[in-house]
């Protein structure tokens, strides 16, 4: 049987795929959009609930035994987060992922002196002052 090649979102971008379309039409696998974070300690010892801990606790409620060093894979949903094992494509907050990608690329491109909005052909927001000055 041929080995399944994992394709992630960044590889798709490199291939020129319209990621916004892929996300909105849910043409992705959950593993492609999952965040993976290692539990640094036992779940009981977390005083706060970062996203990966919230997802881990959901798994624990379903009887999954977890400990320090386990990798938690989760997706962002409209209601917060959900472990990949309990999520479906329908649960994924695609608008939030598009925001994440835009933010990531804006930061990366800014370091290179490239304007993200200009690169993707998005009109720039103008202030009243710049409008009145003609610029």
Helix content: 40-55%
> Stretches where pLDDT falls below 50 for ≥5 residues?
1-7
Q: Can you count the beta strands?
A: 3
Output the helix-strand order.
HHHEHEEHHH
Task: Specify the oligomeric state.
Answer: single chain
Q: Can you tell me the number of structural domains?
A: 3
- State the CATH superfamily name of the largest domain: B family DNA polymerase, thumb domain
Using only C-alpha atoms, the radius of gyration works out to: 19 Å
**What is the second-level CATH architecture of the largest domain?**
Orthogonal Bundle
Shape: elongated
Q: Give the biggest beta sheet.
A: 3 strands, antiparallel
Mean pLDDT: 85
DSSP helical segment count: 7
Compact description:
The chain is of the alpha+beta class and 135 residues long. The protein is built from seven helices and three strands, in the order αααβαββααα.
Would you give an account of this structure?
This protein is α+β, with helices and mostly antiparallel strands. It folds into 3 domains: 1-32, no CATH class; 34-92, B family DNA polymerase, thumb domain (Topoisomerase I, Chain A, domain 4), CATH 1.10.132; 93-135, no CATH class. It is 40% helix and 11% strand. The chain is built from 7 helices and 3 strands. The chain has helices at 9-14, 19-24, 30-33, 51-61, 94-111, 116-119, 128-132; strands at 35-38, 71-77, 80-83. A 3-stranded antiparallel beta sheet has the order 1-2-3. A hairpin with a 2-residue loop joins β2 (71-77) and β3. The protein is elongated.
């Amino acid at each position: 049987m041929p080995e399944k090649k994992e394709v992630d979102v960044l590889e798709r971008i490199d291939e020129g795929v319209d990621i916004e379309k892929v996300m909105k039409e849910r043409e992705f696998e959950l593993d492609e959009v999952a965040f993976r974070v290692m539990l640094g300690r036992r779940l009981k010892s977390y005083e706060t609930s970062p996203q990966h801990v919230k997802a881990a606790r959901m798994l624990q409620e379903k009887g999954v035994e977890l400990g320090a060093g386990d990798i938690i894979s989760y997706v962002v949903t409209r209601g917060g987060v959900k472990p990949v094992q309990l999520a479906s494509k329908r649960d994924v907050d695609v608008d939030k992922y598009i925001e994440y990608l835009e933010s990531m690329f804006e930061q990366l491109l800014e370091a290179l002196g490239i304007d993200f909005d200009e690169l993707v052909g998005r009109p720039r927001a103008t202030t009243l002052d710049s409008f009145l000055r003609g610029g």
